């Protein structure tokens, strides 16, 4: 398994263990993780701390040139907010653990030239299946239904 996707999965598991939504993300630059995070909407009472946003926040302020050389890994297809951040910072590649549970704004990413690698990783799919089974109301709240 790709160690960067495994790190994103580890973040998702941490979020789940904290009572949150099991979506994790890491930002990789030159073969190193420079930011990692997980969805902390529940834990922090946040409107914006999705996994990708948390990873970007934890990476800290970086020059635009660094973002343009990064790959962001996420266990679930990015929503429109996270897609916007990826586009804003010019991140050229997104590795997605799975998009069966939720297909985010993938078309917008590809329309802007972002490369997508969709893995359909069984661990990612199973984490979301268990979470939705246990907390359907929380899932529906998070995706706006």
What's the total count of β strands?
5
How much of the sequence lies in strands comes to: 15-25%
Written as H for each helix and E for each strand, in order along the chain, the element string is: HEEHHHEHEHEHH
Poorly predicted ranges: none
How would a textbook summarize the main sheet? 5 strands, mixed
Overall pLDDT confidence: 96
Strand line-up across the major sheet: 2-1-3-4-5
Anisotropy-based shape = globular
Structural class: alpha/beta
Query: In angstroms, what separates the terminal alpha carbons?
Result: 34 Å
- Helix tally equals 8
Helix content: 40-55%
Radius of gyration: 14 Å
Task: Explain what this protein looks like in three dimensions.
This protein has helices at 3-17, 41-44, 51-59, 64-67, 80-88, 106-111, 122-134, 136-142, and strands at 24-29, 32-38, 70-74, 93-96, 115-118. The longest helix has 15 residues, at 3-17. It is of the alpha/beta class. Helices cover 46% and strands 18% of the residues. Strands 2-1-3-4-5 form a five-stranded mixed beta sheet.
């Amino acid at each position: 398994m790709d160690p960067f996707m495994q790190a994103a999965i580890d973040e998702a598991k941490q979020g789940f263990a904290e009572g949150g939504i099991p979506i994790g993300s890491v930002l990789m630059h030159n073969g190193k993780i420079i930011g990692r995070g997980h969805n902390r909407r529940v834990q922090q009472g946040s409107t914006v701390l999705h996994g990708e946003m948390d990873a970007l926040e934890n990476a800290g302020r970086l020059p635009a040139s660094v973002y343009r050389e990064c790959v962001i890994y996420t266990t679930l297809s990015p929503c429109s907010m996270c897609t916007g951040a990826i586009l804003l910072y010019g991140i050229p590649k997104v590795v997605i653990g799975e998009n069966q549970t939720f297909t985010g704004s993938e078309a917008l990413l590809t329309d802007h030239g972002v490369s997508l690698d969709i893995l359909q990783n069984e661990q990612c799919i199973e984490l979301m299946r268990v979470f939705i089974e246990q907390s359907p109301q929380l899932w529906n709240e998070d995706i706006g239904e």
